[in-house]
Amino acid sequence: MPWIAGGAVVAALLAAVAWRHYMTARPRYALAEVAVAVHHHDGTKLAYYTDAAAFAEQVVDETADWLVAQRGLDEMAAAWDLHDDGTHAARVHAAKAALARSLGRALSAALMTGLPDTASAGQWVVDEFAEQPPVADVLAGDHLDLRAVGPAAVEDGVARVPVALRDRELIVDVTLTLALRHDGARWRIVAAEGIPHALATLDNAQMERIAIANRPREDSLAALLSVGAPTVQRVAHGRSHTVLRLQVPLWNRSPRPITSVTMGLSTRASDDEHAAELSVEHVIAAGGHSTETWDFDETATRGSRVAALLTHPERLTIRPRSVVTDNEGQADTLRLVRRYGELKGQGAGNG
Fold it and tell me: Do residues 44 and 50 make contact, with C-beta atoms less than 8 angstroms apart?
């Protein structure tokens, strides 16, 4: 009997060890331990289950690439206070490195400050990423709420866990997928998949809000300024120099002089976000007419967005973006909203 009892104890211990090994090797256990580590500021445990450097670098890399593609390098470099005059690739690389360092410092500092007792560890991590560039450059002050964490699906040594998030202000849902890989006997979070699609979803929702906000502004601009059909001509200067001459007729419909106009040049199929900007910097008298002319060197602009637009004049559209009128010596400006951040700054994010 003692031998049987001893064997039963050994078998129970082995079963307990095997069960613990089975549980700790599951990706859901790793996620739970990450939440516990964040909640209790256990940096050792957090490092054990999360490759924080790889995760932050990947999030920054994909978000920065998306922003540069959508808004242009110069605008994002200004937003991130970068002063690198090198090549395009060098400036993008510098942006990513700076943002990754900034995000890493912010997360480390937050871990040391403590969490409120009622805080959710998962929501806290989402908030930390959402408040730091480059993610903050997309959200423009919006809040991402953690809605749900789905079950893990394991395939070819990679566990993928869907995480549902909601933009509180836009009321739109996006899903990211946490990727975990085996590192020895444990799972570690290494990446968030689906970032470009999530960003595009948020961007589309923002564009809808901007379009709604701009409708009354467009009507007001049309009451101030009429824009005629554009024409494009090739004009030769000597034997080898040719310019593409764009002419646009304008009519001042307001009872006051117009002192400045900006317009977006695009095609019917493209959005105003990617339009080329044209400006008029002279006075158009009240009730007056002016034909504006822009010359673009055909050789210098070859391959550019402007050249692509001007080669199909039948598709061109021109939309006023802003009009400045002279109101007895005071400048009155009426302009369209260009960025979601502008809309939020005007307190119209929910309108």
Answer: no
DSSP secondary structure of 103-164: HHHHHHHHHHH---TT--HHHHHHHHHHTSTTHHHHHTT--EEEEEE---EEETTEEEEEEE
In angstroms, rounded to a whole number, what is the distance separating the alpha carbons of residues 321 and 107? Answer: 40
Contact 94, 84 (CB under 8 A): yes
Pairing of strands 144-149, 225-227: unpaired
Q: The tokens of 286 are what?
A: 């009240």
Nearest-angstrom CA–CA distance, 99 and 138: 14
For residue range 74-101, list pLDDT tens digits in order. Answer: 788 778 776 656 677 787 888 888 888 8
What pLDDT is recorded for position 326? 95
- Cα separation, 191 vs 274, in Å, equals 31
Question: Domain 215-345 is of which CATH architecture?
Answer: Sandwich (2.60)
Angle in degrees, CA 259, 262, 264, rounded to 5: 160
Q: Residue 267, class by beta-carbon neighbours within 10 Å (0-12 exposed, 13-18 middle, 19+ buried)? A: middle
Domain ranges of the chain: 2-193, 215-345
pLDDT at 291 over 70: yes
Helix (H, G, I), strand (E, B) or coil at 71: helix
